[in-house]
Amino acid sequence: MAKPNEKKKVFIICPVREIKEEVKIKLTAYIMKLESEGHEVYWPYQDNPHQNTDKIGISICEYNRKKMLMADEVHVWYDKNSTGSIFDIGMFFMFVHNDFKKLVIINREDIVPTPEKSFENVILALAKEYDNPVAKGLKEIWKKVGKQ
Q1: Whole-prediction pTM value?
Q2: Tens-place pLDDT, residues 49-99
C-alpha cells in the first residue's frame, strides 16, 4: 500500500452505462485533480478496453478486477442505481481483508447513514467512516483476521 504523499494507483468505481452528464463532469474534474498530483487513475468509463465491445460484461468485470487488484486505493462515486458499481463494490469487499485496500468516497455528501441495514451503511463501514455497532463489528473482525 502506498504511503501518504506517495504517488498512488487509484481505481475509480462509478456509474458507466447510464452515467449522468453532471456526474461525468464532476468525475472528470476529480480525476484531473488526482492526475495533476501525479497519481495514476483508472476510470472504467474511459480506460476499460472492453467497454464498447463486450456484449455480456464478463471481460469488463475481469479487466476491472485486475485493475482494482493493482490499485493502491479505490475511490467510489456511490450511486445505488448503478448495478455495475454495486458489483465493483462487491469485488472491493474481497480486497478489504486486513486493510488490503483503502476506500475513499468521492461523493460523501450524498451518502446518508440509515438506522436500518443498508448499502449506504456498508459503503460507510468499508470506508471506515460510520461509527456504529455494525461498522465497529466489521473493524474488529478485520483486526482479528489480520492477526491470524
Answers
A1: 0.75
A2: 999 999 888 899 999 999 998 999 999 999 999 999 999 998 888 776 555
In our burial notation (b when 16+ CB lie closer than 10 A, e otherwise), range 39-56 reads bebbbbbeebebbeeeee
DSSP per-residue string spanning 26-89: HHHHHHHHHHHTT-EEE-HHHH-TTTTT-SSSHHHHHHHHHHHHH-SEEEE---TT-HHHHHHH
| Domains of the chain by residue range | 9-147
The whole-angstrom separation of Cα 136 and Cα 29 is: 33
Question: Is the Cα torsion angle 91, 29, 41, 104 positive or negative in sign?
Answer: negative
- Name the grid cell of 62: 475481469
Q: Are 84 and 65 in contact (CB under 8 A)?
A: no
C-alpha cell at 119: 448499502
Is 107 exposed, middle or buried (CB count within 10 Å of its CB: 0-12, 13-18, 19+)? Answer: middle
What CATH architecture is 9-147? Answer: 3-Layer(aba) Sandwich (3.40)
The helix (run of H) or strand (run of E) holding residue 136 is: helix 133-147
